[in-house]
């Protein structure tokens, strides 16, 4: 694992992964801050949905008993952190809270507790892909077509089982309509809304290669990101899609993304009429729903080194981490706000949208 090559150097002083500061140097090291307690509660609220998924994992012997052990161990560590922020290797943040949860799940023998729901959502989204692309292609104006594609990314990004509230909706209702969601996003201006500036640069066709850190399975990757990537390919760009190495919640993995594309491409390696020879899939080396760009795979670093646009998609990668990250090239953070705590930090609304475009001055 090595630093992402498009981060400015020295990385030690120029890059901080987590967006929300849970504590400041002046805070008492032996007492949890209000922000730490608030986020510990967010992760505690996720335990029932994770436990339920783990209980039904038929690939793991004694899954119900092990799911109970996961719930008890993780809840215990979260309570420890509330009492003493130094109790488990230092004060918690958005990365360590997720990492401990994944470590406990894996230590108990669970490999991918969201596998079944991911497969179901992928199948639904694949069946809708031709219709979504057709609707996009029918829009003649470049700016309008871009905005439609962006709305599709937001609509797809709502498929997030890391949000306790959304996990309950999916469990109860069996999903959320992609096309309905894309038409019913919160009104603009969004909490961060640089779309018009990005649109002006897009129309000038200024980028040659983009690396996109992708997020969730299902509608997110298939109906949101892939139509957007396809449009980039149509414009002559090279596109690198960076996906997780290991499963985390319902995030798409490198292996799953490769399989999805094999189902969507035709016998000529085209995505509904668009050549995919300039579409590359990279294993990011990541195993969490957030990402620390100071540690990525050498494969991704090699494929990304000459990119002139970095896109971080989703709440975990693009908002909770890396929202304020600086790069050597232009960058775009795009995602839907699905935690009330994030909405409050940004001064926006729950299910608000973030579209943050940062242009490098040359």
**Low-confidence segments:** 161-175
- Structural class label: alpha/beta
Number of helical segments? 15
Widest β-sheet, arrangement of strands: 1-9-8-7-2-3-6
**Residue fraction in strands:** 5-15%
SSE map:
Elements (H helix, E strand, L loop, with lengths): L10 H4 L19 H12 L1 H9 L7 H21 L10 H14 L7 H23 L4 H16 L6 H10 L4 H6 L8 E2 L1 H9 L5 E5 L5 H16 L3 E6 L10 H11 L5 E2 L2 E2 L3 E5 L14 H7 L4 E5 L1 H6 L9 E7 L3 H7 L6 E6 L4
Parallel strand pairs: 1-9, 2-3, 2-7, 3-6, 7-8
Antiparallel strand pairs: 4-5, 8-9
Protein name: Damage-control phosphatase ARMT1-like metal-binding domain-containing protein
GO molecular function, one term: ATP binding
InterPro entries: ARMT-1-like_metal-bd_sf, ARMT1-like_metal-bd, At2g17340, At2g17340_3_helix_bundle, Type_II_PanK
Task: Please characterize this protein's 3D structure.
- The longest helix has 23 residues.
- The protein contains 15 helices and nine strands.
- Helix 3 runs antiparallel to helix 4 and helix 6 runs parallel beside helix 11.
- 47% of the residues lie in helices and 11% in strands.
- It has two domains: 86 residues, AF1104-like (Up-down Bundle); 242 residues, Rossmann fold (3-Layer(aba) Sandwich).
- Helix 14 links the parallel strand 7 and strand 8.
- It is an alpha/beta fold.
Considering the chains and any ligands shown, give keywords for the structure.
362 residues; alpha/beta; AF1104-like; Rossmann fold; 7-stranded mixed sheet; 47% helix; globular; manganese; pantothenate kinase activity; Type_II_PanK; metal-binding
């Amino acid at each position: 694992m090595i630093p992402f090559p498009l981060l400015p150097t020295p990385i030690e002083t120029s890059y901080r992964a987590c967006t929300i500061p849970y504590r400041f140097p002046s805070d008492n090291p032996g007492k949890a801050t209000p922000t730490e307690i608030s986020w510990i509660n967010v992760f505690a609220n996720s335990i029932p949905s994770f436990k339920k998924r783990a209980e039904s994992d038929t690939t793991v012997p004694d899954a119900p008993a092990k799911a109970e052990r996961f719930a008890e161990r993780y809840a215990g560590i979260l309570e420890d952190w509330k009492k003493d922020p130094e109790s488990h290797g230092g004060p918690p943040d958005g990365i360590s809270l997720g990492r401990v949860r994944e470590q406990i799940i894996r230590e108990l023998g669970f490999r991918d507790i969201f596998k079944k729901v991911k497969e179901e959502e992928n199948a639904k989204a694949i069946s809708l892909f031709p219709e979504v692309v057709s609707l996009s292609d029918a829009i003649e104006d470049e700016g309008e077509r871009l905005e439609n594609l962006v709305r599709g990314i937001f609509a797809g990004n709502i498929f997030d089982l890391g949000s306790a509230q959304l996990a309950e909706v999916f469990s109860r209702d069996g999903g959320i309509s992609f096309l309905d969601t894309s038409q019913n996003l919160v009104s603009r201006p969004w909490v961060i809304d640089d779309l018009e500036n990005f649109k002006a640069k897009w129309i000038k066709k200024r980028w040659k290669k983009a690396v996109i850190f992708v997020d969730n399975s299902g509608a997110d990757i298939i109906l949101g990101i892939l139509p957007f990537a396809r449009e980039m390919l149509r414009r002559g760009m090279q596109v690198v899609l960076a996906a997780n190495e290991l499963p985390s919640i319902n995030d798409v993995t490198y292996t799953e993304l490769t399989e999805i594309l094999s189902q969507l491409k035709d016998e000529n390696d085209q995505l509904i009429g668009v050549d995919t020879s300039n579409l590359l899939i990279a294993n990011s080396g990541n195993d969490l729903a957030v990402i620390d760009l100071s540690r990525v795979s050498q494969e991704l670093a090699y494929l990304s080194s000459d990119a002139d646009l970095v896109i971080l998609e989703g709440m975990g990668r693009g908002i909770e981490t890396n929202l304020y990250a600086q790069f050597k090239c232009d960058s775009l953070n795009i995602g839907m706000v699905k935690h009330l705590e994030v909405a409050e930090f940004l001064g926006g609304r729950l299910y608000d949208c973030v579209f943050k475009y940062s242009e490098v001055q040359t």
